[in-house]
Fold this sequence. Notes:
The structure holds three protein chains of three kinds. Chain A is mostly helical. Chain A has helices at about 5-10, 15-25, 25-45, 45-50, 80-120, 120-135, 140-150, 155-180, 185-190, 195-230, 240-250, 260-285. In chain A, helix 6 (about 120-135) packs antiparallel against helix 8 (about 155-180) and helix 8 (about 155-180) runs antiparallel to helix 10. The model of chain A has no long low-confidence stretch (mean pLDDT about 80). By secondary structure, chain B is an all-alpha fold. In chain C, strand 2 and strand 3 form a beta hairpin. The longest helix of chain C has 18 residues, at about 470-485. In chain C, the strands form six sheets. In chain C, strands 15-14-16-13-17 form a five-stranded mixed sheet. A four-stranded mixed sheet of chain C has the order 1-10-9-8. A four-stranded antiparallel sheet of chain C has the order 4-5-7-6, covered by helices on one side. By secondary structure, chain C is α+β, with helices and mostly antiparallel strands. The two termini of chain C are about 45 Å apart. Chains in contact: A-B, A-C, B-C. Chains B and C meet through helix 2, helix 3 and helix 12 of B and strand 10, helix 5 and helix 11 of C.
Amino acid sequence: MTASDISDVVQAxxxxxxxxxxxxxxxxxxxxxxxxxxxxLFTYVGPFLYPVDPFxxxxxxxxxxxxxEVAPLGTDYLGRDMLAGLIHGGSATLFxxxxxxxxxxxxxxxxxxxxxxxxxxxxxxxxxxxxxxxVLPALLFAMVLVTLFTxxxxxxxxxxxxxxxxxxxxxxxxxxxxxxxLEYVNAARSVGAKNSRIMWRVILPNALAPLIVSxxxxxxxxxxxxxxxxxLGLGDPNVFSWGLMIGAGREYILDAWWSVTFPGFMIFLTVxxxxxxxxxxxxxxxxxxxxR
Amino acid sequence: MNMVMMVAxxxxxxxxxxxxxxxxxxxxxHAAPGDPADVIAGEMGGATEEMMADIRKTYGLDxxxxxxxxxxxxxxxxxxxxxxxxxxxxxxxxxxxxxxxxILLVTTALLFAIFVGTSLGVLASHKPKGIVSGxxxxxxxxxxxxxxxxxxxxxxxxxxxxxxIFPISNMFDITKDTGFFGYILDVMHHLVLPSLTxxxxxxxxxxxxxxxxxxxxxxSDYIRTARAxxxxxxxxxxxxxxxxxxxxxxxxAGLQFGSIISGAVxxxxxxxxxxxxxxxxxxxxxxxxxTVLGILFFSSVLVILANLVTDFVYxxxxxxxxxxx
Amino acid sequence: xxxxxxxxxxxxMIATVGSGTLAQAEExxxxxxxxxxxxQKARHLNPAVQSGIATAVPGTQIFATPLRFDENWQPQxxxxxxxxxxxxxxxxxxxxxxxxxxxxGKPVTSEDVAFSLQTVKDNHPFxxxxxxxxxxxxxDANTAVINFDKPHPAAFLAMSSALLPIIPKHVYGDGQDAxxxxxxxxxxxxxxxxxxxxxxGEYIILEKNPDYFIEGRPYLDKIIIKNYKDPTxxxxxxxxxxxxxxxxxxxSKDIARxxxxxxxxxxxxxxxxxxxxxxxEFNTKNEYLxxxxxxxxxxxxxxxxxxxxxxxxxxxxxxxxxxxPGSPFYAANAEKYDLDLDKANAxxxxxxxPRGADDMRFKLKVDYIPNGSELQKGVAEYLxxxxxxxxxxxxxxxxxxxxxxxxxxxxHDFDMSMDIVFNWGDPVIGVxxxxxxxxxxxxxxxxxxxxxCNEEVDALLLQAGSELDQAKRIALYNQAQEIIVDEAPxxxxxxxxxxxxxxxxxxxxxxxxWGAMAPMDEVFLK
Lengths: 292, 325, 526
């Protein structure tokens, strides 16, 4: 038998199939999934169904929702259509959330995997680095990073990603440490599989469950993070995002509650959907805890 | 002896970490395009070339960067964090002047989150399918998913504007001359909405965590034995289960200190709470490097301290570690 | 003696110590604390080395100046009980009062005046204010003679408000750099209020000066200047009565809100001298903007009415040139550039920039001062769809903070930028700096960042700056303005809608031309 045969066998034993079934039974997960699909459709199909330029000034500034059919959800402080802003704001927010989430997960898994697998000096060194990033207050550091370089959605994504990875790293490390001493890993090793193969083809797939759950939460956090930065005025002003809308509307909150409430609600809905999906996945991978 | 060694090692460890924080941030900030002389010139209302050169000399910005770093570290170790570019005052004074407000806010929010959160979690674990449990899930999910500044703004509108029960912003009313006790009450009055806003996020987490831990523990052998032995239900909950369930909450709370400080920045901005968060925001925007460094340094120290304390508490409270098992 | 018309007294003025400087001053009542709300953070409290509103409001309470101005642009005695100007206009003699003391008890002498003037000249960013000063003679403790190398009518306004605070030589003369002197955060002055406490970014507490040199003043016991994060919370606090005076109220929504309030009076008086203009400046070195027709086209394409009425809620007035309409030097006849899209398009065609395949002629970047929201960012965002109608594509470039924006603009690394620039009373102080050829200084913000240079304009401005006859000055400035407006290095939009909202309990609110940037010794609480 070759090492690749081993990993094939190991794959067949993965709990993914049961997990998917369990997920379907979790009301949280299904609700989250439905919400997520709605948000995605709103964001990516919306522009075709409602092709209004969010930058276009369509009516008098700060018009309330329902006052004119030109702007069904009202206008912002410049007179731009709120609905158009909401539809177009989603893609930037989702982009940053996913990009930052991707960076976080990538760095986190890399660091955690090497630390958990090799242990010893490598672990020590990597943990120092992790601790260093954990000790820095995330938002403050991200604010410094964003102000140092121009705030574009790429810089923002990078800044968020780079302060958020420690949690993922720790989780990955714990998982790798737990799994590396299990039977099938020993089996792979005894057949002469290289370390890298063991790490990525054997351990990682089995560690994926909690990592996926964590990833959904990470994306949610990244979205909130982006909203926070935009609210403080540190987002990309050339791109419409929900956080930006809240930040812009903040000064008018008492006269135009809709300019803050609607984008805030969209963020809430999106993060909620990711949270619920994460919940559902958690239930799916940990059936034990579902007995309540 | 072992304990002392451990503490010493951790302290050394912490010291090196703080040093690393200082060095990295120093370089990072100085890597930025734009230099403080521009800031100061802009803040002054414009300046000539000669004045800018003068400013650079005054603040030692004309020396090579390694020299600047050396000077900075040397002074920092003596407790001198430099002079703020913007405020013409020592950074240490500025930071210490604001630190109290932030610590007050964060501690209140945390205590609120821990107490109310665990209580709700315990209640929910009593009847896992009941209303309280459902509410806990609902509130926790909402509290967790809504942007914290949005929650804060909504609270301001509701409880400071529409129903003006609480003040809109700030920590206390400087214009009132009420003596010490009155001052304390005034601060507490102002503290309610901000700490509520900051606490909700964590309350949500702790409630769910407590509920989950409680459920796991309640179905354990240990508890089953206690029940079989006829121990009263309240004692089962309060004495045995709760003690074990609170532990993860406290541990997480301590480890979340860094994230709480981040949350505090947003809350402080919404409520004009005069803490490190607002100082940080202003200093970052003003490119007031010494103050930014000072705040990053100080908050890192706070986080490290929180971690040390949490670790300590954990070792004290966790029966498994105590008995060496 | 020469006549100066509005600008200065014709001959030596005799002091009327103890009388109010406002044309109609109510009878005051002693006591009370005035709470002033602001969103501006003061770096420190010494206006001699720092320009700006944040320092000026507390600074003018702590420090006294030789002169003060009333609401009709007339100078009034203050630390100087009388003054006179030589026949050739090249020296001004100040006769200081004999009873003025600093808060630490030491007398205010001509030495302090000389020292202060030198400090301001060396450290204050407004170079043109005292550039012609060659020296100050101090023949005796109460006489100061300021010598100039040419007549300098701007000197009078420059000796009032926050522009020439008299600082104590015995405190600042210790060799330390005035810009970073520790006394800046705990200053000693001779004004109506003395320093009590300063918590940076939070509040400033000033207390009544019991030995103030004007008998029976100030009325107030205390002034507290409180910082607020944003205009909205400050407006709310004012409405609720937590704040009794909110000067420099400039956001249209809050102005509207406070105007509706029953507890508060809102006035736009007191900002005549500040002369704050919101405008769009062009980098005349840019390949498109170096063409006058392009600049004029953009000016014609912007609908100032929309900006003023829709974006800014009708709270501000239009600005059509470098000098604000409230100033005696305003040129009413210059081109106004009212909205004319056809003309804009025609000019662009003439300039040789036809529309391309995508219907656009070319692209320009616009910068703006961050945190200036509706005035800066709002207008910049409006430019995008509006200039599109003239075939110009506009991209916004956000600067995360003020220094980044300042660096870009001062480094001439911009196409066009929104900006806010103040007149500061006399055109020599705040207006010349934008247009003089020799003020094209890279790295210096609020200099001639447009790289605009017109020798004729230079000559007119410099001549007007040293012309003592008011009527002649006005004529010269009119000519200069017509040329400048025609060449359009800047598209002027509106005057900042500064208002003061004050509680009905406030008597004698500060309404001279300098508004809140003047001593509030006449203010009282009913």
